Amino acid sequence: MKLKIYVVGHSHIDAVRLWDRRETIDVCCYRTFKNTVDLIKKYPNVIFAQSSAQFYEWMEKYYPEVFEEIKKLVSEGKWEIIGGMWVESDCNIPSGESLVRQILYGKKYFKEKFNFDVKVAWLPDTFGFASTLPQIFKKSGIEYFVTSKLNWQTTLPFPYFLFRWKSIDGSEIVGYETPGGYNNTDPEHLIRQAKFIFMRHGIRTSIFPYGKGDHGGGFTEEMIEKLFEYQSDEFEKIDFAKVHDYFEEEIEPLKNKLPEFKDELYLKTHRGTYTSFAKIKLNNRKAEIALDTAERFSTVANSLGMDLKFEDFEEIWKILLFNQFHDSIAGTSIEKVYKDSEKDFNKIFDFTDSIIQRSLDYILKNVDTTGTGKSLFVFNPLSWQRNDIVKIELEKIGFSNFAIKDSEGNFLDYQIIKENGKKYVEFLVENAPSVGYKEYKIVEWVNQESKKTLNDLWNSKVIENEFFRVEVADTGVIKNIYDKKNKREVLGEKGGNIVQIYEDKTLIEGPWNIWLGKLDELRKPVSILKEENRLSSSITVKYRYKDQNEKDSTFILKISLYKSIPLIFFKADIDWHEKHKMIKVGFHLNGHSDFTAYEVPYGHIVRRNPDSKGASPAERAKWEVSGQKWLDYTFSDGNYGVSLLNDSKYGFDVHENFVRMSLLRTPSFPLSYNISLEKLENLTESIMDLGKHTINYALYPHAGNWREAKTFKKAYEFNYPLIPVLAETHEGHLPKEISFLKLSGSDGVLLMSWKKSEDKKGEILRLLEIEGKEQTLEIEISDNIKEAYEVNLMEEILRSEDIAIDGQKLRTNIKPYEIKTIKIVREKIENV
Question: Is 315 in a helix, a strand, or coil?
Fold first, then answer.
């Protein structure tokens, strides 16, 4: 039986990389699509497939005549829609909700414009894939997944070309790794790849993309003629086919015979992309949180009567999704791309700031704010009650001498701090309601006696609260952290908060790849300053560093403890001027484990540490890995562990008991695609990530493992600040303290999104079970519930019989590690 080879015309187009988006629109997309339309007219047996809804929207906006031609070809079956995402996103750095929105808005666009439901994820060039993706894809109606990138392994090739990819919850899709790349232009190469698939899996049918890519191109007339003319005794035929048809007709019947793979698809190269170009990664994290917060409180405000154009959220989300394209968020594009990106994020933050303020103000218009003093409301966007510090600008208080009182009239301690030239008031909020608020009163009062002291004596390098005692050595490194509650030392003998600076002279593809050389450590501080306030104490260590640059780089590392908060806070203010370096911060822990847990999009992964005795060759290759808001190193006896939380970082490594987070890399920016020889000869090297950076992170030492310690909640609290809002005095029907949504029945279930449904007829609640337990969950909102349905991630109704409604409450089951989405309709008439 001979080989049967299918091809589909395709052009992999980078939305940005060595060119900016305008060039992508006018050159990569327009010229490729116009040429392809003309070729299909000449060769009616040809089929072309293209991903990325963003590209189609650009054609619709800027080149409508080409867009109409594409629509016609889609209806005739000669142009296939694939991918189902807004762009070909990175799949390590964006949050789980961002990946859901990539598919939601991508598939929505394709359905509205082409009446086509995409079932094939198409990510040929993305730099690795989180282990949770099968569930996200499956619950979005995606059954098949195609990539070419796993060929790029520097060691240990990926073992399969066709496989069943399963996530931790049991969701499963079919994965397809093309044996070659995505820029196939020669039939001879296709024969070779088809043989690989047959030898590995015994499958005689295969499909391959055919055409030039990256900067666009697609197929040419010569390539089409060459394909049709090519003959060989080794194959039955080479013919054009649709990707969907290949999977549904050729692979679906064989699916159960394919090997199972239940892990992340880790790319054993391009590890620098977790860290390169820090600003877009910081902006991405802040934008994801701001959009989530804005959706939650605007949904609440809308239920109270606020009119809002919810379609605007989709347009702002699309700006973020575009910037999550794999060569953008990874830090692997030219400098111009990031200047454009900064403008994009300014639009996002202008929108979210406005929506959050408007929503909270509207909510407070309905609240009874009567009583003595000025009302200060503190909002908690998270779905559990929490104790945390809130911060408000002193100028907004309006009194020079004041006191803060809680609802029972108790006076609260507060402190005044200075940051970036502004003064702020900080105080502890206890039991901040789940997705709700509570009121405090500010009254004129004789100012509290100042308790602030500064001490730069070298023998005063200890701070403590009721949880920890932290001592800093003369080197500026933390000498020890004593856990008072658990009566144990947290750090190993070598200490923690150690800043390491590596030479990182990558020979090729600097932003992509890490090549570590000479190591320096910061051990000679310029100063060590201790500060004590009413609520906190801190030690600030300042270092200077110089290697090859004439200008000193500076590190100001602040270590803080707050009363009633079981975290050790770190703030690194870095002014960096050295090129071709990589900066890490690390902690030697006082215990051993072979495993470390990390947050990944909509879930977690437990990885075996690469130098543990039982590590396989593939595990040893994971010497730099991706994570999101938290990692946890629980000691092997399971009785104690330490979590590392962060506000903007994605690259980590663990060797023995040394846990490190990657802070900065300073490779050269890539060169522009069209740079002339003359410009190249006179080029001045442009280095990314020089200048000022502020990085926040925290340690969370804890009894038990990360599940028992609720590390995930601490990480979200670290990233989602409490929001203070002052209100005028007036009567209202809402109380002075309320929770608009409560979850009960499990501490291991998080509300990940609360938004208006896409049809504007209800609200969407997205939940995540993170501890691996089947739970019966109760959700209570502030109005009676009329209807409730389980829906998929595309908000299509699956069932309602598994959800019990009782007034303002609903009950449902959630499975281990499940992403569960519920659509609710309130009894009251909603403003839409």
Answer: helix
